[in-house]
Amino acid sequence: MSTDPGSLARLSMSLPAELFRQLDAMVEERGLPSRSQLISELIRHALAEHEALTRPEEMLAGTITLVYRGDRGRVRHQLAQSQADYLKEVISSQHVFLEDDQSLEVLLVQGPAAKLKDLCDSLRAIRGVHQLQLVTTTALLPPLHEQDEVGAADAAKPRKQRAGSEVAAA
């Protein structure tokens, strides 16, 4: 998104005095240069959430943050099974142990909004999951692997045949 002064539009708004005070306090606490930066961030979050609700086929990237407790082996196994059901959408995950027999897991995800919602519903249904939050953006990860037509055709060949053609090409 460009912040070139020529591509900016002005917005004037009225807020209740207490809300305005809280907004200014938040800008100061975060060390932001202006209210505009904070309001832009809040609008981007709202737009990504809106996309997820109104356009289920829209591709989104984001994170799913889970906090869970209980029989860790059982819960972790069920979480892994759910993630395996959405292998195309789950890019990576990170797990840490917390105090009081709790665990925190963060999944990096990308896929159609409807699939991400289904994944969240699947994870929420696991007994022991106490908190779950999906945060999305419409900005996507670049393709992890790009194959040109030759590479794709070569990848389809059996391994021995590929090795022979590589030797022949050398």
Walk me through what this model shows.
This protein is 46% helix and 23% strand. By secondary structure, it is of the alpha+beta class. Among the domains are: 38 residues, Arc Repressor Mutant (Orthogonal Bundle); 80 residues, 2-Layer Sandwich (Alpha-Beta Plaits). The longest helix is centred in the N-terminal third of the chain and has 20 residues. The mean pLDDT is 85.
In a few lines, what is going on in this structure?
By secondary structure, the chain is an alpha+beta fold.
Spell out the key features of this protein.
170 residues; alpha+beta; Arc Repressor Mutant; Alpha-Beta Plaits; 6 helices; 4 strands
In whole angstroms, the N-to-C terminal distance is 46 Å
Strand portion:
15-25%
Find the CATH topology of the domain at 58-137. Answer: Alpha-Beta Plaits
Corresponding CATH superfamily of the domain at 58-137: ACT-like. Chain A, domain 2
CATH level 1 class label of the domain at 58-137: Alpha Beta
Question: Strand order, biggest sheet?
Answer: 2-3-1-4
Order of helices and strands: HHEHEEHEHH
Largest sheet geometry: 4 strands, antiparallel
Helical residue percent band: 40-55%
Radius of gyration equals 23 Å
CATH architectural category of the domain at 58-137: 2-Layer Sandwich
Number of strands: 4
Instruction: Work out the oligomeric state of the chains in this entry.
Output: single chain
Low-confidence stretches: none
The overall pLDDT, averaged over residues, is 85
